[in-house]
Amino acid sequence: MTATQPAPHPLTGQPFTSPVPPGTGWPGDPATARTPRARDAEQVQRLASGARTLPVLDARVSVCRACPRLVTWRESVATTGRRASFADQPYWGRPGPGFGDERPRLLVVGLAPAANGTNRTGRVFTGDRSGDWIYAALHRGGWAREPFSRHAGDGQHLDGARIAAAVRCAPPANRPTPAERDTCGPWLDREVRSSPRRCASSSRWAVSASTPSSPPPAASAGPCRARDRSSATGSRRR
Ligand code: SF4
């Protein structure tokens, strides 16, 4: 997919082509031009398990190209398929890595990014209605600095919490395939191993993805336990 003519970032004004090349100054971009890219499921597994920190994991997620259908879709939306109301903005056009605390106690897991949300803004569940609900709930619970998340670079900050998706690229019709979920799973497995005490999930798929088989689900001894969405509204002080 051909990159577009540069357009100004809506907050910083810096011009970017779409999809955004890694390491070119997009707010919060965790990657550089040298970040290794996964091009198949085996490479996702190797790069995820070898990420020693969550920032390294985020960088690797953000340049992943392991699912051909999703790569084609996310980049086609970013170049020729933008929503009319965002046509003057650059689109991130890359996977949405997790966002939030590097040592989370709470991990919120959704299904997948939106084509004109994360795929535009570069931050998970940002710029769409699902994000409005999630970040407002986290703010009420004392986990988020702001009750909204509008765009990477808007000053939002999570303390003790992290948000991630079971599938990191926007899928056509908001429906990733089971194979795509499985290919993307090692990224989330690695995030779950960052030792959050609680997981909150907003869909059955995300619930199943946030309780990986290795290590086993936390119902007995694992580091994280799938919870229903009410967990996201709980106070951090509980
Ligand atoms: S869905 Fe996950 S595994 Fe597939 S290309 Fe996106 S980040 Fe990579």
Offer a concise description of the structure.
The chain has 238 residues and is an alpha/beta fold. It has one domain (7-233): 3-Layer(aba) Sandwich (Uracil-DNA Glycosylase, subunit E), CATH 3.40.470.10. The protein has helices at residues 41-49, 54-61, 68-79, 118-121, 129-140, 178-192, 204-209; strands at 7-8, 15-16, 99-100, 106-110, 161-165, 198-201.
Describe the model.
Residues 1-40, 171-238 are annotated as: Disordered. Residues 197-212 have a biased composition (Low complexity). With 238 residues, the chain is α/β, with parallel strands linked by helices. The protein has one domain (7-233): Uracil-DNA glycosylase-like domain (Uracil-DNA Glycosylase, subunit E, 3-Layer(aba) Sandwich), CATH 3.40.470. It contains seven helices and six strands. The strands form two sheets. Strands 3-5-4-6 form a four-stranded mixed β-sheet. A two-stranded antiparallel sheet has the order 1-2. It is globular, with a radius of gyration of 16 Å. The chain starts with 6 loop residues before the first strand and ends in a 29-residue tail after the last helix. The structure holds iron/sulfur cluster. Iron/sulfur cluster is lined by residues 44, 61, 64-67, 70-71, 95, 167-169, 180, 183-184.
